[in-house]
TrEMBL record:
Name of the protein described by the UniProt record: Tc1-like transposase DDE domain-containing protein
Matches recorded under InterPro entries: Tc1-like_DDE_dom
Species assigned in the record: Pelomicrobium methylotrophicum
Region (Disordered): 1-39
Pfam families assigned: DDE_3
Ranges for domain Tc1-like transposase DDE: 71-137
Length: 137
């Protein structure tokens, strides 16, 4: 470090400017209290809205039992009939030729898994919102 910007460093000046020892001042206290045991108190209780929450939840539970809902985990994935590039061979001096048709199709699959069954459907092209709704029905 230089004493001033733009001047060469002087080791003697640096030696006297660097402080040795701790640089922290002694604090009078940190304001924290020592832990102490107190007498037991009443435990905290919930507010007065619990009855309203239970009534709302109960009506949702009754509707669920009436309609018999099923939890289904769904996933969608795309498939392609496009051939993969693979290593091939040919006699020396001849270029290998891989023959395949360039009219591959793209397929999409949607699948769902529930506690009791597994479902899936294939669609040409990509899957849009209406196909997902149809699948869930």
């Amino acid at each position: 470090m230089d004493a001033q910007a733009g001047t060469p460093a002087d080791r003697e000046t640096l030696r006297h400017q660097v402080q040795r020892g701790p640089c922290l001042a002694h604090s009078g206290g940190d304001g924290l209290f020592q832990p102490e045991a107190r007498e037991a108190r009443h435990r905290a209780r919930r507010g007065g809205r619990r009855a309203l929450e239970e009534a709302h939840l109960a009506s949702a539970q009754k509707k669920a039992r009436r309609e018999g809902p099923v939890i289904v985990f769904i996933d969608e994935s795309g498939l392609s009939e496009r051939p993969t590039r693979v290593r091939t061979w040919a006699p020396r001096g001849q270029t290998p030729v891989i023959q395949f048709h360039f009219n591959w199709k793209q397929l999409s699959m949607i699948a769902g898994v529930s506690f009791t069954n597994a479902y899936f459907r294939l669609h040409e092209g990509s899957i849009k919102g209406p196909q997902i709704v149809e699948f869930l029905r």
